[in-house]
Amino acid sequence: MAEAVFHNPVGKPRRRFKVFNIVVYGIVTLAAIVYIAPFAWMLTKSLQNQFEAGSTNLTPAKIQWQNYTDVMNGSTEVGVERKFGNFLINTLKIEALTIILQTTICVLAAYAFARMHFPGRDMLFAMLLMTLFVPSIILIVPNLIIVTQISRAFESIHPSLKWMNNWPSLVIPFLSNTFSIFLLRQFFMQIPDELWDAARIDGAGHLRFLWQIVVPISRASIATTILFTFIAVWSAFEWPLLVLQNNPEWTPISVALAQFRSDGGERTHLLMAAAVVALVPIMILYFFTQRQFTQGISTTGLKG
Question: Are 82 and 74 in contact (CB under 8 A)?
């Protein structure tokens, strides 16, 4: 009997798969370099002196940590009158107000759309989703007119109640976020009805069920919405520029960066140092919340 000859049909596909992996890894690496290059350039320029920052040198001859001190505390010797440390604190205050109030409102609204039954619920939610397709730039002028009129009405009662050139104009118009409500609603709808039945047997109402059961098991989704809100508020530029009139008490760091850039002068090293200061909090926040972020996105289905 002739001896059977076995061929290895797996060998060739394995080689093809290996080549495919090499190509994919090469493309991903190239894309990573393209995305990281501007940040690396910004960091190196922030550590150079004024002459080196204006040249093509990529590495500093001597690391200039003083650039960050001048930017944070201000230094009239190098022409930095703005203290970016104050602007950083202003932005953190706006972040705290927006995140606390917006998260509370979005959690309540998402729970109502997901777990409560009332006339017109689905139609109201559909109308809410329609706002996601409206470009935000279109809403700037109507929002500005509304906020200006409200500010005049409150200012007529007492000057301290005005909205324009004050924190209410930066926080109150954005207390409701459609995407956050949608994301939380989709997660709340996945919570088993048996938990609600058990809570009702124990005498719990909707509010107690929400804060004692729903919120604790939804921490990943809530953390995701908080991260999105933090990034949106931190990078906001057009709206603060419109509603603030050179008010140093509430000027965010994004507006301060633009004003520092328009002041003129060849101070690329200080501008890059200020940009790094504005970038670091976002990087730190994502570093500590990336697990909750990915978990919140992956566990939020599209039910309903």
Answer: yes
